[in-house]
Amino acid sequence: MKTYRIASIPGDGIGIEVVAAGLCVLEALVERDGGFRLDVETFDWGSERYKRTGALMPEDGADQLRDFDAIFFGAVGAPDVPDHLTLWGLRLAICQPLDQYANVRPTRILPGIESPLRGVGPGDLDWVIVRENSEGEYAGQGGRSHRGLPGEVATEVSIFTRTGVERIMRHAFTLAQSRPRKLLTVVTKSNAQRYGMVMWDEIAREVSADFPDVTWDKMLVDAMTVRMTLNPSSLDTIVATNLHADILSDLAAALAGSIGIAPTANLNPERRTPSMFEPIHGSAFDITGKGIANPVATFWSASMLLQHIGEPDAARRLMDAIETVTANPDLHTPDLGGTATTDRVTEAVIAAIRGRN
Ligand code: NAI
Ligand code: MG
After folding, report:
1. How many domains does the chain contain in total?
2. Which Gene3D superfamilies match (predicted)?
């Protein structure tokens, strides 16, 4: 029987709660399917390890993950550790060396969930945001000099390479081509940023020549927030830089009902390294330990993981189970205006997987 090796990194805060729920759901799917197994190894990397040892993960952490088929990640961040240390010490320390350059973020309004946008229902908002995940504004270039002095300077340099932009553009066009509407919107800020963003636009045009059946247009990122809010059905696949897509995808999640339902995949599309699947939300200290974190984002991420490793039937079954559960407002967690707990939602999804509700 096919066995996949999965690295589980729950991390911090509600990451630990939702990954535990996600693993229970995956176990139920394996039982139900009977055609494959998951060999899950859990890594206790995160802020507690940092406080104990001075590092969020071992020096060779990314290498320890190379032989896995996929990585299942929770969230990282603690109230008493600076966010730039936790992000760079764990999440980016995995994404960057493993070259997970395509961050894919589907957003749609699931059954039973209400968008904060008036008159916008399930069919009206169905997007996939493709975020460049290896360079741009988060390339890690920059520094600080003369710390604390009046003349202190800090630089934060964006890096755009032809290779980096071309490969994300190709990924976005390919994804757009695979979706029924074959529609791509390329987001930049090429009026104010004259070099990297203008190159981004030029490369989009070059790559588009290989995808004659994809309709594409360009948007400036500020105007894009307006279009997402006022005309969501005019969009389908969206590609943007690391920073721009980071922001737009939080907006997308909110417009689709809650950040607690939004999933993401950090892909190495060539499959030279394992890809990583995680909810887009963070460790949410404000609700940690209360048992009310919405596990749906993590379940949806688990479905993307199954699709990626080659178990589309199980992926579909999980998505169907999620939608059966979200359709029932009694099974909504507080972020969706309900009173259900993480456990209650998890049990309901498992029941739906087993086929009895
Ligand atoms: P956050 O996503 O943790 O929380 C924002 C708001 O959304 C909070 O009110 C939270 O309660 C709510 N929320 C988030 N996920 C939810 C869920 N599953 N169910 C119900 N409500 C949910 O973002 P915030 O507060 O800016 O960051 C908290 C920590 O997480 C920081 O240390 C930050 O650096 C880290 N972070 C980590 C990320 C990652 O590991 N990928 C992503 C974003 C933030
Ligand atoms: Mg973000």
Report:
1. 2
2. Isopropylmalate Dehydrogenase
